[in-house]
Specification:
Helix 6 packs parallel to helix 7. By secondary structure, the chain is α/β, with parallel strands linked by helices. The longest helix is centred in the first third of the chain and has 26 residues. It has ten helices and nine strands. Strand 5, helix 6 and strand 6 form a beta-alpha-beta unit. Strands 6-5-4-3-2-1-7-8-9 form a nine-stranded mixed beta sheet, sandwiched between helices. Helices cover 36% and strands 13% of the residues.
Length: 340
């Protein structure tokens, strides 16, 4: 059976994304003075309240589009390779499409992490037109429970809509550890993702500070089965995850604050979603000097960290530039945005 026009569009976009990714890898080897990945938060509010999550509230208003545009432009000026929009729930932001288009206008790869609840056919097509290049949904269980409502039972129709309408890459991330009651659910979710033509990954739920919690025997069995199931994906770094599954610390050089930036709704740069407060400098004031300092700064939380996106970007520089401890930088007073 000949490939559908949508399938051909996805394949073509995948080739383009891979070529751009290869170009960015080469650029990262030439220079360490720019971020490889930035997570940016346009909306702290979420329509869900998952028990294990500490990255949302139920009242914040969206960051104004004008301010988001300034932040995206700043990331472009810093030479950032990939910008992932996260939250909260980014689909609640009324100007999300304009933010995605701004990322693309700056020549950066545009991604998004969403709970998927607000996806309908028209919304997916608008994301296509805006230029979204990849999307990830984390599904925590097959049936909703007190820990998480992000279940396959609720979201399967959303996944079918993505399979029918999305031109962008879709990755479904399932989880083990933490408060997940049925580890076997992760394998069910992963198989469904592959069946729909998506990539599938597995994550290990961390505690409230992003630190590891070892897996039990059943969780380990599911984790290794998922590894065998998963397709090739830019979101997988097996060595880190294997150690986390066994409760072993990782010996690595965390490049948060340099290769990876987490920009909160107030426009401040943090190491990651679980270490908010450091360096705590406004993105508007962030410079190459800040990137160079944090690139060489050893992070005390690194050995037991489970924040995989930071692992992914730091591995590029694992072979160079030993780090050392330095005193934390005091947050800058400027660049704050009060959201009322």
């Amino acid at each position: 059976m000949p490939a559908s026009p949508q399938s051909l569009r996805r394949t073509l976009q995948g080739w383009r994304r891979d070529l751009r990714g290869a170009r960015e890898v080469v650029r990262s080897l030439v220079s360490t003075d720019h971020p490889l990945l930035a997570h940016i938060i346009p909306m702290r509010r979420c329509n869900l309240a998952c028990e294990y999550c500490n990255e949302y509230d139920d009242f914040s208003k969206p960051v104004p589009l004008e301010e988001m545009a300034r932040r995206v432009d700043k990331l472009g000026a810093l030479g950032t390779s990939v910008v992932t929009i996260s939250g909260g729930e980014p689909l609640l932001h009324p100007a999300l499409d304009e933010i995605i288009a701004r990322i693309r206008k700056n020549g950066m790869i545009a991604g998004m992490i969403t709970n998927g609840y607000l996806l309908v056919a028209d919304r997916i097509q608008r994301l296509n037109r805006a230029g979204l290049e990849w999307l990830q949904i984390s599904i925590d269980n097959v049936t909703p429970d007190d820990v998480s409502k992000k279940s396959l039972k609720v979201l399967d129709k959303k996944l079918q809509l993505l399979a029918a309408h999305a031109d962008f890459h879709v990755n479904i991330n399932s989880v083990v550890g933490g408060g997940v009651c049925n580890p076997q659910d992760a394998l069910t979710i992963g198989k469904r993702a592959v069946e729909l033509g998506f990539t599938s990954t597995i994550g290990i739920i961390h505690d409230g500070s992003g630190q590891l919690q070892p897996l039990n025997d059943e969780e380990k069995r599911v984790y290794h089965a998922m590894q065998a199931l998963a397709k090739r994906s830019f979101t997988r770094i097996h060595g880190f995850q294997d150690n986390i599954a066994e409760g072993r610390p990782n010996d690595w050089r965390c490049r948060a604050g340099a290769r990876y930036l987490y920009i909160c709704e107030n426009g401040l740069v943090h190491y990651c979603s679980q270490q908010r407060g450091y360096p705590g400098i406004a993105l508007a004031d962030y410079t190459v000097e800040d990137i160079r300092r944090e690139y060489l700064t050893e992070k005390s939380c690194a050995p037991n960290c489970t924040v995989s996106c930071v692992h992914q970007v730091s591995v590029v520089d694992s072979w160079r530039a030993p780090q050392h401890r330095v005193p934390p930088v005091a947050p800058a007073p400027s660049g704050l945005v009060h959201i009322e």
